[in-house]
Write a structure and sequence with these properties.
The protein is α/β, with parallel strands linked by helices. The protein has helices at 26-32, 37-44, 59-74, 98-105, 122-135, 159-162, 226-247, 265-274, 286-289, 296-306, and strands spanning 9-18, 23-25, 48-50, 83-87, 112-116, 141-149, 167-177, 183-191, 199-200, 223-224, 258-260, 282-283, 316-322, 326-333. The strands form four sheets. Strands 1-7-6-4-5 form a five-stranded mixed beta sheet, with helices on both faces. The structure holds oxa(dethia)-CoA (UT7). Residues 35, 39-40, 43-44, 120, 159-160, 163-164, 199, 224, 226-227, 229-230, 233, 263-264, 291, 322 line the site of oxa(dethia)-CoA.
Length: 334
Amino acid sequence: MSSDLPACGVRICGTGSYVPERRMTNEDFARTLDTSDEWIVQRTGIRERRICDPSREGTFEMARTALERALDSARMKGSDLDLIIVGTVTGEMTCPSVAARVGAAVGAVPAAAFDVSAACCGFMYGLNIAQGLIRAGMFRTIAVIGAENMSSIVDYDDRSVSILFGDAAGAAILQRDRDPRIGCLYQSMGADGSGWHSLYLPRKPRDVPPFDADNPIRLGNIRMNGKEVFRFAVTKFREVLEEAMKRTDLTADSVGQIICHQSNLRIIDAARERLGLPQEKVYINIDKYGNTSAGSVGLCLDELWRAGKIERERPFVMVAFGGGLTWASSVWRV
Ligand code: UT7
């Protein structure tokens, strides 16, 4: 995409998020698995994560609450929405989409609605698609939500996977604006399906590739080769962030906040150090929530937005990578 100024702008009108009340600390894991708080903090930066109470909440409820909060912050009603996009790989059902149910729950009918399956990039793919549709004149007001109930697809006997993930949802409401200077200045999205087996969610025996056949795999649970994903992520984060800043002429001084998908503190720190970015510009909340997949970028955005840390006129950058393998970036001026 070129970074030419669009004929109309796209305004972020409000944001919202939701995390379950239930906390799961590193000590909780150490009680049942051969692991420790020290190992988890050193290797990931995570201290605790939030976990859904399956008797009363899941992806749909988290997405709905995050959207209700975003609507409140935008002073809008569900009926103001023309389209709802939910990034998730943990929708309760493949049909209907989480987006359609959320739309009905907030009174957005007959707004269009669909889910995006791009793992940890789900929110960012949704955001990039949404702003493109607004600029193309097809929709005026779009809600984008990233929601993930990772605890429903994690094998809690697998110490190398379970300690990483938490549950959360984040939402943003975008609207067409007359000022063409505001909105998305640059976006990128990509995928390389040849690396799919680094991070996958098998449903049936034939989903498991031959080289994994002898490993203990539970169908319906996420399977991850942590080392492979780590290697891919360290390089991809740096490349994608560097390209986004270069294409928008941003430097470590001129850029505002940088929101990275909260995958692993070591992955984020590696990219930050390589690009010489100051620590205070790279937002971190992985210590409190773990890796919440598609929930993570929207949750960070909401925390920064509510804290008044997204500065007017100073562009901020969002980047993510995830299963697929997928990656995405988005640079915004508000
Ligand atoms: O959103 C995208 C999703 N995924 C990611 O971003 C994940 C990217 N990968 C990672 O974050 C890291 O690879 C992990 C945190 C998953 C693992 O860290 P690592 O430094 O790559 O550890 P490793 O897999 O190389 O394992 C080192 C050792 C192994 O023991 P041996 O073989 O050396 O005896 C593991 O069995 O650490 C062991 N290990 C653990 N030990 C204590 C693995 N998990 C644990 C654990 N506690 N929870």
